[in-house]
């Protein structure tokens, strides 16, 4: 079973340990606060679905929220020095659904995450009943299903409906809220069936930052400045400088997961070459090394004089969206 806090074992200087609030993360935290509060004020269990492209930091957002609840940290909710929000430690069950997950094995995966000694024992109905018994025991305040897009198949809508029906059955137990994390293609289930309709509280989609949006770039540059200070390099690299921030944003498609990978690799290159900071040539080489796995990146933008002119030929993210449309619906 994978732990949502697995990164706690990462090295102290791992950039994944650094979390910077953004407008999107604060909005998600507010909705999660509402989700946890509504269970205390009604006899209904509700759910939320956090959807967005790969490597946008969706799981990291949940990890940070759980951490803040454990610490009672409501700093992101402070307005004029006061807030009515109260955060308590959350007893959570985290389950990352495996590729090719089907209705017949989602119950056994859930039982395994619950610590069941024989999660595959019994048919899927009996397994589902054991899941519900565990939920009714009051062990959990929140159940998190990650990678829910692995439930989406190219088969008939009936298969998708059954998966949604199983999830809605857990909500019917009214034991605790459920959170779903996945790619945007899971929206097919949410939008086309009656089982989850009306059972999910509204949740903003996570979207990548755009290099050509002034508001996005102000925020992205601020994140880069924080990460710059966390690189543990002898001198700052000036990553938050506007023109460089735009180029980095374009390179990673505005996705913080890819940004972490890029800066980590660039730091390693700088140390190997005994540089005191991440120079433009170092960053350009890092992008060149990483871009083989980034099919949406048409060119290396770092240090280009005509970057904006070239970038506007293909709007930010358009290549990624086109690539996604051309792929199958499975991860």
Quick summary of this structure?
The chain is of the alpha/beta class and 331 residues long.
* Strands side by side in the biggest sheet: 1-4-3-2
| Helix-strand string | HEHEHHEHEHHHHHHH
User: How would a textbook summarize the main sheet?
Assistant: 4 strands, parallel
Number of helices: 12
Looking at the structure, the CATH topology of the largest domain is Rossmann fold
**Which architecture name of the largest domain does CATH use?**
3-Layer(aba) Sandwich
Oligomer: single chain
What is the count of β-strands? 4
CATH level-four homologous superfamily name of the largest domain: P-loop containing nucleotide triphosphate hydrolases
Give the count of structural domains. Answer: 2
Q: Estimate the global geometry from the Cα principal axes.
A: globular
Mean pLDDT across the residues is 86
For the terminal residues, how far apart are their CA atoms?
20 Å
Low-confidence stretches: 316-331
What is the CATH C-level name of the largest domain?
Alpha Beta
Q: What's the gyration radius in Å?
A: 21 Å
Question: What order do the helices and strands come in, and which of them pair?
Answer:
Elements: H1 23-41, E1 47-51, H2 58-71, E2 92-96, H3 103-113, H4 124-136, E3 142-146, H5 157-172, E4 178-182, H6 187-192, H7 214-229, H8 242-251, H9 256-272, H10 280-290, H11 307-311, H12 318-326
Parallel strand pairs: 1-4, 2-3, 3-4
Helix pairs in contact: 3-4, 7-8, 9-10
């Amino acid at each position: 079973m994978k732990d949502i806090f697995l990164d706690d074992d990462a090295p102290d200087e791992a950039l994944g340990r650094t979390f910077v609030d953004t407008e999107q993360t604060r909005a998600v935290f507010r909705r999660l606060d509402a989700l946890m509060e509504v269970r205390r004020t009604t006899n209904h269990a509700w759910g939320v679905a956090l959807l967005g492209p790969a490597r946008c930091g969706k799981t990291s957002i949940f990890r940070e929220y759980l951490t803040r609840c454990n610490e009672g940290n409501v700093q992101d909710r402070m307005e004029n020095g006061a807030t009515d929000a109260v955060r308590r430690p959350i007893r959570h069950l985290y389950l990352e659904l495996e590729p090719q997950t089907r209705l017949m094995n989602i119950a056994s995966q859930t039982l395994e995450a619950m610590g069941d000694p024989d999660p595959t024992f019994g048919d899927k109905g009996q397994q589902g009943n054991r899941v519900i018994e565990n939920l009714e025991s009051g062990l959990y305040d929140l159940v998190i299903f990650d990678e829910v897009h692995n439930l989406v198949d190219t088969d008939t809508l009936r298969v998708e409906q059954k998966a949604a029906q199983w999830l809605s059955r857990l909500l019917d137990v009214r034991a605790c809220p459920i959170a779903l994390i996945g790619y945007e293609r899971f929206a097919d289930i949410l939008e086309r069936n009656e089982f989850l309709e009306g059972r999910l509280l509204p949740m903003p989609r996570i979207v990548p930052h755009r290099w050509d949006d002034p508001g996005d770039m102000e925020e992205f540059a601020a994140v880069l400045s924080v990460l710059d200070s966390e690189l543990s390099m002898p001198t700052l690299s000036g990553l938050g400088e506007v023109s460089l921030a735009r180029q980095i944003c374009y390179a990673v498609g505005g996705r913080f997961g890819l940004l972490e990978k890029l800066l980590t690799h660039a730091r390693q290159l700088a140390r190997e070459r005994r540089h005191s900071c991440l120079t433009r040539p170092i960053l350009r080489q890092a992008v060149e090394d990483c871009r083989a796995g980034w099919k949406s990146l048409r060119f290396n933008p770092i240090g280009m004089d005509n970057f904006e002119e070239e970038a506007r030929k293909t709007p930010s993210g358009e290549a990624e969206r086109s690539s996604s449309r051309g792929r199958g619906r499975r991860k």
